[in-house]
């Protein structure tokens, strides 16, 4: 049987009276790239926060390599988180630190390495992501694509077994998006990493995913290979992947408000 790297089992979550996750089930095999796709406000980022233990479910559980991170005590959460690298949408870089220092930050913060060992790890990641020439630059002086690569270098410093990406190609042009997509593929092939990627970007999803979980209204509506998703006759999936404005899909209220106020 395949080893499961990540599992969300019947996860429910409400904020006040608003139910966001309504029985989320996802299984990601070790070494697999799973893309979570779905309309705005459907709970994709909230799902990632459950998987990193930042949020605990009202019901159900999330597992990292078979161990529950939900409601775990802080030390247990910390130890499970050490298996995870997270790439936030913004890159979450610190503006007054150089690229080198941003990448070194987790190693310094968690006292994982110092001196030459720290330098070796940071330089290895910078080389891997083609960032050596930018190592002394501040984040404000580099492009969006480079910022994402710095975020990725930083996520890799702790040698995670799983990498979670929140919208890794948002705000990038198609060429830069493919640089990031190809890095995700390279990390899977060369480092054997398991990836979970939240995205709206259909071409990215098709390029990198082994399987796609289509999230809708707090549940996985369909899970399958890119080809299976494209061939799914489900009207909501067809509307989404073809970007049609007309159809059965319920839009996020905040999107509706934005349309009405325009
Ligand atoms: N801490 C919170 N408190 C209250 N509501 C929240 C909280 N976090 C998320 N939500 C709400 O949960 C819903 C789902 O949010 P989430 O960020 O997961 O959506 P998403 O699917 O990632 O959307 P998008 O694609 O637009 O990023 C949203 O309506 C959001 O406002």
H/E element sequence: EEEHEEHEHHHEHEHEEHHH
Structural domains: how many: 2
Radius of gyration of CA atoms, rounded to a whole number: 19 Å
**Structural classification:** alpha/beta
Give the neighbour order of strands across the main sheet. Answer: 6-7-8-3-9-10
Which ligands, by name, code or SMILES, are bound?
Answer: adenosine-5'-triphosphate
Which term fits the overall shape?
globular
Unreliable parts: 254-262
Please report which band the strand proportion falls in: under 5%, 5-15%, 15-25%, 25-35%, 35-45% or over 45%. 15-25%
CATH architecture of the largest domain: 3-Layer(aba) Sandwich
Protein name: ABC transporter ATP-binding protein
Domain ABC transporter: 6-242
Pfam families: ABC_tran (PF00005)
GO molecular function: ATP binding
How would you describe this structure to a colleague?
Helices cover 39% and strands 24% of the residues. It is of the alpha/beta class. Strands 6-7-8-3-9-10 form a six-stranded mixed beta sheet, sandwiched between helices. Helix 3 (99-109) packs across helix 4. Bound molecules: adenosine-5'-triphosphate. Residues 15, 20, 40-46, 200 line the site of adenosine-5'-triphosphate. It holds the Pfam family ABC_tran.
């Amino acid at each position: 049987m395949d080893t499961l790297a990540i599992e969300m089992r019947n996860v429910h979550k409400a904020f006040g009276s608003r139910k966001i996750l309504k029985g989320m089930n996802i299984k990601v095999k070790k070494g697999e790239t799973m893309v979570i796709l779905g309309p705005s406000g459907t709970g994709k980022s909230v799902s990632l926060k459950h998987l990193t233990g930042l949020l605990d479910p009202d019901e159900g559980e999330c597992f990292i390599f078979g161990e529950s991170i939900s409601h775990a005590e802080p030390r247990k959460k910390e130890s499970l988180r050490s298996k995870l690298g997270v790439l936030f949408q913004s890159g979450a870089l610190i503006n007054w630190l150089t690229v080198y220092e941003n990448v070194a930050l987790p190693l310094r913060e968690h006292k994982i390495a110092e001196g030459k060992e720290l330098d070796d790890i940071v330089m290895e990641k910078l080389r891997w992501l083609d960032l050596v020439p930018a190592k002394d630059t501040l984040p404000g002086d580099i492009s969006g694509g480079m910022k994402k690569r710095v975020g990725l270098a930083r996520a890799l410093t702790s040698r995670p077994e799983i990498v979670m990406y929140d919208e890794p190609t948002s705000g990038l042009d198609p060429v830069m998006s493919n640089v990031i997509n190809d890095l995700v593929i390279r990390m899977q092939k060369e480092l054997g990493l398991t990836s979970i990627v939240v995205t709206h970007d259909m071409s990215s999803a098709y390029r990198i995913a082994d399987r796609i979980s289509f999230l809708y209204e707090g549940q996985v509506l369909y899970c399958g290979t890119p080809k299976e998703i494209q061939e799914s006759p489900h009207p909501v999936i067809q509307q989404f992947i073809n970007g049609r404005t007309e159809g059965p899909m319920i839009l996020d209220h905040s999107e509706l408000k934005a349309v009405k106020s325009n």
